[in-house]
Description:
The chain is of the alpha+beta class. The chain contains 4 helices and 3 strands; from the N terminus they run ααααβββ.
Amino acid sequence: MVALAFKAIRQLYPDYPLWRDFAYEYEHGKQAIDVINGGPKLREWVDDAEAAPQDLDALAAPDEESWLRERAVFDLLNSVAAHAPSAIWRRYSWLSNQPSDDFIFMSSSSPTLPTRRP
């Protein structure tokens, strides 16, 4: 929604200074909006008079797909915990996929929040 608001402001008031030029979060040489957004794609899309909302969707799609793949493992764990809420699960190292010696306890009152059990 904010991206579309920026686009509307740019179209209605082309000379309005949307992008302030100052050091943000100790980053010099980059515009604040680029630091906040993780790169210049949003700003470039807003400033491109020919760009449509679908173009922004196309720019964002690879990052959104990557995010969905990365969080899928957590969705799976939460789904398993919801179906067997009082189970004890062996914890795996996310980096090496090797089992560790400790366990996590999935509480039946809060199946999505693992807690350590002595």
